[in-house]
Structures are given as structure tokens and as C-alpha cells.
Amino acid sequence: xxxxxxxxxxxxxxxxxxxxxxxxxxxxxxxxxxxxxxxxxxxxxxxxxxxxxxxxxxxxxxxxxxxxxxxxxxxxxxxxxxxxxxxxxxxxxxxxxxxxxxxxxxxxxxxxxxxxxxxxxxxxxxxxxxxxxxxxxxxxxxxxxxxxxxxxxxxxxxxxxxxxxxxxxxxxxxxxxxxxxxxxxxxxxxxxxxxxxxxxxxxxxxxxxxxxxxxxxxxxxxxxxxxxxxxxxxxxxxxxxxxxxxxxxxxxxxxxxxxxxxxxxxxxxxxxxxxxxxxxxxxxxxxxxxxxxxxxxxxxxxxxxxxxxxxxxxxxxxxxxxxxxxxxxxxxxxxxxxxxxxxxxxxxxxxxxxxxxxxxxxxxxxxxxxxxxxxxxxxxxxxxxxxxxxxxxxxxxxxxxxxxxxxxxxxxxxxxxxxxxxxxxxxxxxxxxxxxxxxxxxxxxxxxxxxxxxxxxxxxxxxx
Length: 464
Known about the structure:
By secondary structure, the protein is an alpha/beta fold. The chain folds into two domains: 4-233 and 447-460, Rossmann fold (3-Layer(aba) Sandwich); 236-444, 3-Layer(aba) Sandwich (Rossmann fold). The protein contains 16 helices and 16 strands. The strands form two sheets. A ten-stranded mixed sheet has the order 3-4-2-1-5-6-7-10-9-8, sandwiched between helices. It has a six-stranded parallel sheet with strand order 13-12-11-14-15-16, with helices on both faces. This is Trehalose-6-phosphate synthase.
């Protein structure tokens, strides 16, 4: 294999595993091949600073054996490409929320194309003939097509980190044919789950008239693409090591001390409408109503990190969460007990293992999620002798792997409340058995397995 070139909307230092996500997933392959990581610099230039649509300065730095190459964006491109099309159209539709998509702002699509063309122009001169290019996520769907258009013949793969909805939902995007055609410029498409892969198969055959070639290979638009599910994992040992750190241990001891006579339930999310947070609070409210023995004994800590607060849908969600939290606490709270502790800010990743370990139950109940790594981190953080219980939405990609969790339909608040009750009163032997199987699975299919399996498949795929 030649040099790995990773491309994503944002770039992180692969030496810094505290950054999580792709930094952990790609560090080994990037370092081994003296790789290049390319993406947006995070810098937005105003017009007065020389920001021009379709243009951006290239920066290169070394991070050990890896070259980091980033491009600035002007304000107009950033707002229309990132906020407008990527997160105003693609994000809601890919998470099944067509009602929240803004299809009317035509300039956003133009900027989305323009930024992908900019990335292609800036990346192409940095490429070597035997490079292997791995492009990540919905911001950059057309990037391979733009690279092909200017003569790049390297092997190119794509991985979609978010869900891919069924064909009729995809078809709601006015430009869906163009987007799906762009995917055929890749050699290998990676999805989080078998369900996503099946949706792609149905779409390209039904909407694009693709010819199935066997083994999830499809031919359309004079090209053949291979598609496969690669469920992303975590670095289990790294997260466990984080749990032995001072901040994690301090957090664990503090929470165990404060809640020594109570059971702690935990939710850790971004404040996003895909995460099912209002439904989760209502399920907890139902638990307190229908299982009164949990009053004064069960506390839900819900961490909801701020996200895109300038967008109306997110501001509305924040107000809704604050309203539901207030209603639950005013109805059931006591002088010495508040049912819900709602924290609208980020929490240090170094504290998360301790918080997870101190919690009897984790509520990971998105309405739709590509994978959801919090579920896997919760499993990795547990004491195997006295593990907590994972309550997991069946609509998270992780549910395909984590079948020993208590799987729920987050839209069914009563059934979710029943699952929480089951989790709170699950016998120790059953908790141990479930946790052992879950831990084995996340170890088998960890983040290193994910990256190596994807790259192996990409190298085996015949392009064109």
C-alpha cells in the first residue's frame, strides 16, 4: 500500500488521541505510511480579510511522520457549504428529518460544489501516483468526482459516518441524482451498518438503474463501485487507560460519594434533534410516574453539549429540554433530591470513563444515529465484576452489534421506561453475562479493526 491520504472536513493531530474519533482511527495507518491529512483549517476569512468564494490559502505542517494540509474558507463559502447545505440539507435528511431540511436556498448547493472543487484543486498537486485516498463523511460526497475531473486516477474510498436513509427519503433531496452519481466516482463506499448498505443497494438499483454485479458491487454511470458495511469502533484499551487517570478516578469517587444511596442514570450527547433527548426525558418521567419506588432513588444526569445554537431547530430543542427538565423536577423533586441534572455544556473526555463507571444505567436512545460510540465507551468503562446496563435505541447503528444491550424504540416512552426499570433491577449475574459479551464484541471490532478492514478492502477493490 502506498501513502494514505485522509480527507475530512476537519483535521486533527493524529498524535493526540485525546481528540478521539478519526485521530485515533487513522493515526496508525497515517504514521506507518508517512501519510497526509487534508481538510478545512477551521479558519473563516471575512471579506475584509481577503476571503473570496472558491478560494482559500493552503497551510502545511508536520505532525511527526504525518503532513497536515489545511485550507481556509471565506465566510460566504463556510456559511453556505457547511451550515447551509451540509448541515441544513444533508444532515437532517440523512437523519430522516426531511421536515427540518432547507431545500430553498439554492446558493448553498453552489457553495457545496464550489468548496469541494476548491478542496480538489488544492489537494491534487499534493498527491503521489500510488497514494490511497480515504475521504470521510457527507460534507465531501462529490470530492472524488471533482478529483477525477482534473485527472486523478488514484484509488479513492469514501466512508459515511452518519446513517443513509431509505430511497424515498433520499429522493426528497432535490439534487439526489447528482449526489448519488458522485458516489460512483469512488472505488469503495463504506457504511456504518448493514441497514445503511441495504438502503444504498435499493437506491442505486431503483433510482439509478444500477446493475448489481454480486458481492455488493454495482455498475452505473460507466463505473463500478463496491459497497460494504464497516461498523466503526473505539480504542477499548485507550479508553480503559483513560479510566485509570486521575480525572476519571476523581470523577468516579465524587459521583459514588454523592450518589451512594441512589442509582445514577447517564446520558451523554450533543444537543441535536437526532439524539432523542426530549423522548428520553419523557421516558424517565414515565418511569417515575409508573414505578414510584424509583422516586428519591434514581437520578438522571443528562449532558447535552452545545451544538449549532444559531440554528432555529437547535434553539427550539434547547428550550424544550429546559422546559421538560423543569417540569419533571418541579413535579417530583424533593429538598434533598432532584430527579434530573441537565448540563448544557461539554464535559472533559478525561472525566467520561469515571462518569460512565459510576452510572448504573446508560441511556443511549437516539432517534437515528450512524453508530454512536458513547454506547461502546460506556461498555469499555465498566467494572466487569459490577457492570452497569446499556439501554440502547434500536435505531442506532450500534444496535446491530450490541444485541445484549436492552434495545428500545425511543418513540415508545412507556416501553423505554419499562426497559429502564428492567435495567435498574437486573440481577448481577445477568449484568455480568451481558457485559462480557458486549465487551468481547467491541474488542473484536475496535477502531483498529475498522481502519485495517476498510483499507484492506479498498486495496482489494478493482477501480472503475
